[in-house]
């Protein structure tokens, strides 16, 4: 008989998936904006990193919150 994953395990998995997807989207969007706005030199790396981490954090947070709400039902 297979055990169902606990609520915490589901939430953790959703946060990880959200972080990965958000990071990928943030990296693509950050690169696009850095090129579009002609960010100079090494500031591009910083700009892309900030966009990547910001997107990963926000998307992971929202996916985790949605999983928490769904888990409570």
UniProtKB/TrEMBL annotation:
Keywords (A to Z) from UniProt: Membrane, Transmembrane, Transmembrane helix
What are the BP-aspect GO terms? Answer: protein import into mitochondrial matrix; protein insertion into mitochondrial inner membrane
Q: Where in the cell is it found?
A: Membrane
Where is this protein chiefly located? membrane
Q: Which InterPro entries match?
A: Romo1/Mgr2 (IPR018450)
User: TM segments?
Assistant: 12-32, 52-71
Which cellular component terms (GO) are annotated to the entry? TIM23 mitochondrial import inner membrane translocase complex
Family per record: Belongs to the MGR2 family.
Tell me what this protein is called.
Answer: Reactive oxygen species modulator 1
Please give the organism.
Brassica carinata (Ethiopian mustard)
């Amino acid at each position: 008989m297979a055990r169902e994953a606990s609520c915490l395990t589901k939430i953790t998995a959703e946060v990880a998936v959200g972080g990965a997807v958000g990071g990928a989207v943030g990296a693509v969007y950050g690169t696009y904006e850095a090129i579009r706005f002609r960010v100079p030199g090494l500031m591009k790396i910083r700009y892309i990193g900030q966009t990547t981490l910001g997107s990963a954090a926000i998307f992971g947070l929202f996916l985790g919150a949605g999983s928490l709400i769904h888990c409570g039902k």
